[in-house]
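Work Package 3 (structural annotation) set out to generate three-dimensional models for the target panel prioritized at the project kickoff. During this period the team completed the workflow that converts sequence records into discrete structure tokens, so that structures can be stored uniformly alongside our sequence database. As a representative example, we reproduce one entry of 192 residues exactly as it appears in the project archive.
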Amino acid sequence: MRGGGVADGTGRLRTADLDDVPAVVALVERAYRGEASRGGWTTEADLLEGQRTDAASVAELVGAPGSAVLLLEEDGALLACCHVRVLPAAGGPRRAYVGMVAVDPARQGGGTGRAVLDAAVERARGLGARVLEMTVITQRTELVAWYERRGWRRTGEQRPFPYGDERFGRPRRDDLAFDVLERSLAGPSAGP
């Protein structure tokens, strides 16, 4: 996938390969964990510490069939990424999962996240998906609201947080869970 851009018309969209794994891991960590993440609004630093992902996990996403990690770059710098994968058939319309949406903290709030999420929606449509799914930490109400403004809705389903598995970080609270969100791809792209 080539072309595209962010809200101001700059940037290049492409699909990650294994050479991109270290840069993707660094971006995801910077966007969600530690002090650097506090420069944007999507930080999870008050909820979790430690890593958000690792090279082995990202490499698995990059190499898996029916899976793509989309990168949005500008002048050789990685601004944002997003993972899209087709879910196994379970009856009903074809579904895809969207995750690992990460935007450099210095670029948050300017349309970069919207651009990479729109690219994920288009990739999922191209894969034949009619419904998108994602999970967001329940306590991230401002992030859930951002997704809702883009056409996602809460399903009412919650999934447990993987306590005890430090590949996902070390929780700073004992009440973390994931809300499941969905978005239909039957109509046009969502608004602002």
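The CA atoms of residues 79 and 104 lie 5 Å apart.
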